[in-house]
Amino acid sequence: MEPRAYPLGEAVKLVKGASTTEFDAAIDAHINLDLERDKPEHQLRSFLALPHSTGKTVKVLVFAEGEVAKKAQEAGADAIGDDALIESIAQGKLPDVDAVVSTPLFMAKLARIARFLGPKGLMPTPKAGTVTDNPADLVGQFKQGRIEIRTEVSSIVHVSIGKVSTPDEDLIANLKAVVAEVNRLKPAKITGNFILSVFLAPTMGPSVRVDLESLK
């Protein structure tokens, strides 16, 4: 028997009440899609700046210089990378950061530390949008709540949309933005229902199924 699906507003209230932790738990969305994992065109990947903060602190390292580096720092970059930092990372001393952004001019230099950044998902790439002439804008997006929407070994998208303390209306707006982006990524040959189910879940506690009609 399938679990009952609740209208989005009610589901948000229920999932907050379902959290069993004493700390401000994250609220995650789990979106089950009608995909065939063995088809390359069914491997989805996108990046989305949510309309509201997820409440997560994101540390951003920017490789840039001059005025561009200054603007990135003013936008909230936690560290500015230079030749000395590249040398340090090449020796295995990777700073504690959640995202790395680079200007195109630095990319040739970063090649020597790709083996340290790559396995942690930190290597800047044009595809991920983390190679840019204007890193300040991207820093702002990361601080606001830029997320990655991705399917790899499963047909489920897992993303954080906020915390228990996040206002209900912000969680609702964030989830609707994620669902809209997922629908935009729908492979052309798929007909019928692409999103099969959506669940919200706290860090610890039971999940709540969301009525798909309430997400439109």
Question: Helix and strand succession?
Answer: EHEEEHEHEHHHEEHEE
> Which class do the helix and strand fractions yield?
alpha/beta
- In the residues, how many domains can be counted? 2
Task: Kindly state the number of beta strands.
Answer: 10
The span between the termini is 25 Å
Task: Write down the overall mean pLDDT.
Answer: 91
Q: What is the overall shape?
A: globular
What portion of the residues fall into strands of 2 or more residues?
15-25%
Determine and state the CATH class of the largest domain: Alpha Beta
The total of helices stands at 7
Family: Belongs to the universal ribosomal protein uL1 family.
Keywords: Repressor, Ribonucleoprotein, Ribosomal protein, RNA-binding, rRNA-binding, Translation regulation
Pfam family, one: Ribosomal_L1
GO molecular function: rRNA binding; structural constituent of ribosome
Sum this structure up briefly.
The protein has 216 residues and is α/β, with parallel strands linked by helices. It has helices spanning 8-18, 66-74, 83-90, 107-110, 114-117, 135-144, 168-184; strands at 5-6, 26-33, 45-49, 60-63, 79-81, 99-102, 146-150, 156-163, 195-202, 208-210.
Q: How would you summarize the topology of this molecule?
A:
Layout: E1 5-6, H1 8-18, E2 26-33, E3 45-49, E4 60-63, H2 66-74, E5 79-81, H3 83-90, E6 99-102, H4 107-110, H5 114-117, H6 135-144, E7 146-150, E8 156-163, H7 168-184, E9 195-202, E10 208-210
Parallel strand pairs: 1-10, 4-5, 4-6
Antiparallel strand pairs: 2-8, 2-9, 3-7, 9-10
